[in-house]
């Protein structure tokens, strides 16, 4: 029965997230915001809501910070593997796509954020700010994310010239967005509890369980949205969604660290280090895949390399 609940909740998460992504896309075409910002910040934040709320539930309901670490690190490398698969099967179209420069910059910022997360997992560097015990690397993560958002907001290099009429008004779009966001939050909270039960039943560590069950299930929105965007030949928004989600996911660690009243959100964990290390390598491969995307063969090989790193991360962590 637990397996049926898991898959039903995962399906509901995908449906709600795809609906939310469509409303964000409508807002994109009704505003003057840059495409890089829409895909890398707004859409990325929407499709990362499951990671955010499942992680908050893991911390404040289940009191398992290691589940958060596995969720964030596992979701990030799974997100990149989605892009890797798209690069493999659409490498010829990918090489011709118009992609914002800030997507590559975000990957580099993501690598810096991986470094901060690894340092936080290995060092006890808490400081007291207005009564809150916060890790110094949490502050570094917030600063890096703010810089990356600013760059995406100023980047219109990948914007499309296409514009379509939207029947709904901005108010109608926002109302529907809020409704589906609430549904997504509810499904995400229940999904965390079911994933924890499934992890215990299969006798997996909480970090590995978070990376496999939570990491995959909560990344399904990125998968669904990205595949749909590629089918519409909107590679810029697809890439921005995936890369932006990876960067935004690090903010989940920050939220948890600031609000958690326990001994601290960061703790050394072998599996988390493995996922982070493989995530850095996958990010570098993705970066060079974007930089040299004029070569169809290079894009294909980069996609294969990204998927291999995801498989390696799972094998080494079990």
Automatic annotation (TrEMBL):
Pfam families: Na_Ca_ex (PF01699)
Protein name, per record: Cation:H+ antiporter
Keywords: Membrane, Transmembrane, Transmembrane helix
Lipid bilayer topology: Multi-pass membrane protein
Domain Sodium/calcium exchanger membrane region per the UniProt entry, residue ranges: 6-149, 174-317
Signal sequence bounds: none
Compartments where found: Membrane
Organism whose genome encodes this protein: Breznakia pachnodae
Residues spanning the membrane: 6-24, 36-60, 72-90, 102-121, 127-147, 173-191, 211-230, 242-260, 272-290, 297-316
Organism superkingdom: Bacteria
């Amino acid at each position: 029965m637990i397996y049926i609940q898991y898959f039903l909740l995962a399906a509901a998460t995908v449906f709600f997230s795809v609906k939310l992504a469509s409303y964000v896309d409508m807002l994109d075409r009704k505003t003057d915001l840059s495409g890089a910002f829409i895909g890398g910040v707004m859409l990325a934040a929407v499709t990362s809501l499951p990671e955010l709320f499942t992680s908050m539930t893991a911390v404040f309901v289940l009191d398992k910070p290691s589940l958060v670490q596995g969720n964030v690190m596992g979701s990030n490398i799974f997100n990149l593997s989605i892009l890797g698969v798209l690069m493999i099967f659409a490498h010829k179209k990918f090489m011709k796509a118009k992609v914002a420069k800030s997507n590559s910059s975000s990957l580099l910022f993501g690598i810096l954020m991986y470094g901060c997360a690894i340092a936080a997992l290995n060092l006890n560097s808490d400081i007291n700010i207005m009564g809150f015990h916060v890790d110094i690397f949490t502050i570094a993560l917030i600063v890096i994310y703010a810089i990356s958002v600013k760059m995406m907001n100023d980047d219109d290099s990948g914007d499309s010239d296409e514009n379509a009429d939207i029947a709904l008004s901005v108010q109608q779009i926002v109302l529907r967005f809020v409704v589906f966001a609430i549904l997504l939050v509810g499904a995400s909270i229940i999904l965390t509890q079911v994933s924890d039960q499934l992890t215990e039943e299969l006798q997996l560590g909480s970090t590995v369980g978070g990376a496999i069950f939570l990491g995959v299930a909560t990344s399904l929105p990125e998968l669904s949205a990205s595949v749909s965007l590629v089918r519409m030949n909107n590679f810029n928004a697809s890439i921005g969604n995936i890369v932006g989600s990876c960067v935004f996911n690090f903010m989940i660690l920050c939220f948890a660290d600031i609000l958690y009243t326990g001994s601290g959100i960061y703790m050394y964990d072998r599996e988390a280090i493995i996922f982070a290390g493989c995530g850095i390598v996958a990010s570098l491969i993705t970066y060079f895949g974007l930089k040299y995307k004029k070569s169809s063969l290079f894009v294909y090989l980069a996609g294969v390399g990204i998927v291999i790193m995801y498989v390696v991360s799972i094998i080494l962590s079990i």
